[in-house]
Amino acid sequence: MQNRTANANKEIKLLAVSILCAALLVLGHLLLAKSLAEQAWVEYTVAAIPFVLFAIGALAIRFAITAEHQD
């Protein structure tokens, strides 16, 4: 029973990560709206989003591998 709860907690964490990634993608598209695209900070923020997504993905894969080895 405890193993089942631990697996559910790990899946919930990975689900939260996927929701965060989706939110970053939506934010990037909203920031590129014509009303905001002229501002300098928007360009840097939108340019950083793919790198943040890559880092989150790499950490999620590492977390999943670690969780798999513990089971």
Tags for this entry?
71 residues; 0% strand; single chain; elongated
Number of helices: 2
Please state the CA-atom Rg, rounded to the nearest Å.
17 Å
Binned strand content: under 5%
Structural class comes to: mainly alpha
Keywords: Membrane, Transmembrane, Transmembrane helix
Transmembrane segments: 47-65
Protein name: Asparaginyl-tRNA synthetase
Organism: Photobacterium chitinilyticum
In brief:
The chain has 71 residues and is an all-alpha fold.
Would you mind describing this structure in some detail?
This protein has 2 helices and no strands. The protein has 71 residues and is an all-alpha fold. It has one domain. α1 packs antiparallel against α2. The longest helix is centred in the last third of the chain and has 31 residues. The protein is elongated and about 50 Å long. This is Asparaginyl-tRNA synthetase. Keywords: Membrane, Transmembrane, Transmembrane helix.
Task: List the topology elements.
Layout: H1 2-31, H2 40-70
Helix pairs in contact: 1-2
Keywords: Membrane, Transmembrane, Transmembrane helix
Transmembrane segments: 47-65
Protein name: Asparaginyl-tRNA synthetase
